[in-house]
Design goal:
heterodimer; A: alpha/beta; six-stranded mixed sheet; four-stranded antiparallel sheet; 10 strands; 35% helix; globular; B: alpha/beta; abc type-2 transporter like fold; 2 domains; two-stranded antiparallel ribbon; 13 helices
Chain lengths: 252, 364
Amino acid sequence: MSKNSIEVSDLRKTYDGTHVVDGVSFTVKSGEVFGILGPNGAGKTTTLEMIEGLRPIDGGSATIEGIDVASCPDDVKSTIGIQRQASDFFDNVRLHEMLDMFAGLYGQSVDAMELLAEVDLVEKSKSFVQQLSGGQKQRFSVAAALVNQPKVLFLDEPTTGLDPQARRNLWELVQSIQAKGITVVLTTHYMEEAEVLCDRVAVMDEGTIIAVDTPKNLISQLLKRGFKKKETVQQATLEDVFIDLTGKALRE
Amino acid sequence: MKPILALYKALTLRFFRDKTALFFTVVMPVLFLLVFGGIFGGEGNFNPRVIFVDEADNEFSRQFVQQATDDPVFDVREDPGETIRAEQLSRAEVDLVVVLEPGFGDIDVSRQAPAGTMRAQYPESQADSARTVIAVLNSVVDGINQQSAPYDPPLKVAEDPQSIAEFSNFDYTFAGLVAFSLLSLGVFGMANGFASDKKSGAIDRLRSAPIRAYHLVIATGLNYVSLALFSVAVMMVVAVTVFDFNMQGDWLSFVLMVVLGTICMFGLGFAVAGWAKDEKQAAPLSNVVAFPMMFLSGVFFPTFLMPEWLQSVSKWLPLSPIAESMRLILMEGKTLLGLGPEILAIGAWTVFFYALAFKLFRWR
């Protein structure tokens, strides 16, 4: 488990003189859930897209499962699964047909129903994507990213815009994917999500990584520096109240 | 091959579930066909609309008018009276008013034959078409003259009808509309459909898999070629059943030309939609490239009606050789082998479009 799945070294991307990604380095161990945290515009998506082989790398290097991204982007793509942030699927194509299509794009075939069962969408197999709720769509998006049995799964803000129930449901899905031994890299700007899901996180701002560690270590380092919350720590948050009142069941 | 087939299958399934796309690809061309076929259809010959005013009102004149009425050449209208008649003439609702002057048909004693004058009235602006009708009337009158007082004119024109396939105006319109539907499908279809998929991110999402632009192009192109064949087949059924369309050429050449034309027009549509980020960019650009072709490529009306300088522009447009080939196959029975220059022109445009398209292509 100590083997590195992803190695990123001094990655750079410049647009019109602006360093969008400015010397990013990190490693992701096999089988872990690795989070990239940061505010909007921090460069998270650009970093991911370079590692995924979707954007040309201006400087530095990235390897996934020992494959160099810049020189063999197609081999990398076959090894990984990608869930994109601002992307959609063809309308008027049924979910099971869409999964067949995506498998075909990798030159493979897939048991669409089995995959839909994994993301709890069997009943929707004959639906079109435009008929799904936000949470269902994200789960389908994850299913589509799993058609090629990837070793590494990239999730770009998978829970943005979802209600608390749908978000928790997706967390469980991510945990079940990790349990199968798949390495997961995700971006988020929800700190609670990172704390629940991620073995380690990288905090990113203005194109650079400021800190990489386990959530627990990052918190204790902060406390060691003498940090105190202004208000007394509550034993529950408003979100806990919301979930308690409305239940954990999915609303879709 | 598998990525292409997988995409092609999904795109095709999707098309037949999309009512808007079905309307624009299948119903619209048929509507065009019905409208333009209705306007330009019929016998296809020029049937002059003539009003006979029989001021002579004798047996000879009445018989003359009756025969002209029975003659399929003339579209003889009832005389509505002098005022309305003049109005109809000025509005070009009738082509000619023929007044049989009093005494028309009375026997000229010196020649022992009916004599007299008929006066043909027409608006000066319509002189050309009126003269055609008058020439017909002249030949009718000549015929009568010959019968009543035969003589052998030293100079004559001998009629020698050749058996040439007869075209109706509809045949001409149909060939043009087939070419137009390929333009419409390739350019407008791509500008709408593909560009909106790009905007939604559905195209970019495909790139998660190790596929290249050419996979996408071939799959989408195959999809469009199937749609074109489907759409043209429906048009053909309507043309044959409703308008008695008369196919002169061979079907294989026709189908291959539809495929070739679609590949060419799809290339243009792909260049436009592949470059555009969304429909807002694609729509105006597709209009700019398509409109000149719609009106100058001889799709809706023959190019020989245009001024010469415009004709010389027209023949360089990419749709022109496609429309011309359709016409030569459908109406003159040519095969692909006889269409060398046209195919060369289509091929050159096709190469140009795809070179441009791959250069300009953006995934998002």
